[in-house]
Design a protein that fits this description.
Number of domains: 2
Number of helices: 9
Oligomer: single chain
Strand content: 5-15%
CATH superfamily of the largest domain: Fe,Mn superoxide dismutase (SOD) domain
Bound molecules: manganese (II) ion
CATH class of the largest domain: Mainly Alpha
């Protein structure tokens, strides 16, 4: 797992072209590694290491929060996803689908929980970056009028999520435009087919140890450490 971090950092500093970086980025914490083919031989999901040190996002997010959030909460979704897939495998083997409704819900919940957390870590970078830039800036201006309006809508949507959920900036491939969505839990309120570019975790476990009930302060601080370059790379990949 340490090799993966080293490889990513090597690619980041190698100065390769934008599309090359996008392709490399898709194999990182967000994209995951492809499973080998063959019927029923897919490997379990694995959680990638954080793309930076646990204390790298301080003072916005404390080392304690990142350790618990990545090491326990995110890890639990990966375990839940793998457990659900095992139970589905057993159901197929026994031709017993009595629990298919619960299993399907668990698959959506844990699967979305894993994917959103993988993207959450890649949505942030120590110190943040200027942006959005390039093609993403053009998409943002076409969709929202201005960068400031996009950021304001993203922050407002994230702050206003009811109970537990997420704020999401996504590319919608049918209309080929950007949309900002709220997610409830991990799996509700999406538009099918969208590619999430940037996500902010609005579950209390993401901020409560540090911000208590002040979700708005956490979201405002998150806006300052966004990795806009990563979002631009994901947008380019989604637009291909
Ligand atoms: Mn979370």
């Amino acid at each position: 797992m340490a090799d993966e971090v080293t490889r990513r950092n090597t690619l980041k500093t190698a100065g390769i072209g934008a599309l090359g970086i996008a392709a490399a980025g898709m194999t990182g914490a967000w994209g995951g590694e492809a499973s080998p083919g063959g019927a029923g031989t897919q490997a379990p999901y694995e959680q990638a290491p954080l793309p930076y040190r646990y204390d790298a996002l301080e003072p916005v997010l404390s080392e304690e929060i990142l350790k618990i959030h990545h090491g326990r909460h995110h890890a639990a979704y990966v375990a839940g996803l793998n457990d659900t897939l095992e139970r589905l495998k057993r159901a197929r083997a026994e031709d017993d689908y009595a629990e298919i409704r619960a299993l399907s819900r668990d698959l959506a919940f844990h699967g979305s929980g894993h994917i959103l957390h993988a993207l959450y870590w890649d949505s942030m970078t120590p110190g943040g970056t200027e942006g959005p830039t390039g093609e993403l800036a053009e998409m943002v201006e076409a969709g929202f009028g201005s960068v400031e309006a996009c950021k304001a809508q993203f922050a407002a949507a994230t702050k206003a999520v009811e109970a537990n959920g997420w704020g999401v900036l996504a590319f919608e491939p049918v209309g080929r435009r950007l949309v900002i969505l709220q997610i409830e839990n991990h799996q509700n309120l999406t538009i099918w087919g969208v590619a999430p570019l940037l996500v902010c975790d609005a579950w209390e476990h993401a901020y409560y140890l540090q911000y208590k009930n002040r979700r708005g302060d956490y979201v405002d601080a998150f806006m300052e450490i966004i990795d806009w370059e990563g979002a631009r790379q994901r947008c380019l990949a989604a637009m291909r």
